[in-house]
Description:
This protein is mainly alpha-helical. Helix content is 47%, strand content 5%. A two-stranded antiparallel sheet has the order 1-2.
Amino acid sequence: MSARSTQLAQRAAQVLNQPQPHVPSPCLSVCVMDPQTDMCAGCWRSLEEIGVWSRMSDEAKRQVWQRIQQRLTGVSGAI
């Protein structure tokens, strides 16, 4: 797992284990879409998830964080 992915995984665990009233964005300012996964190489969100983030409820944002965590666990050192 790359340093970026490790950082994101740590943030995901923190967000999911310590619920906050305002769920932070997973954005790492590495806005590059991976053509193989159709996910951002920085935050592991889809374009749809990125586009609707600001309008999502905190619960929906936590669900995105859960999906990010699942995506990261399925990665074998790529990205």
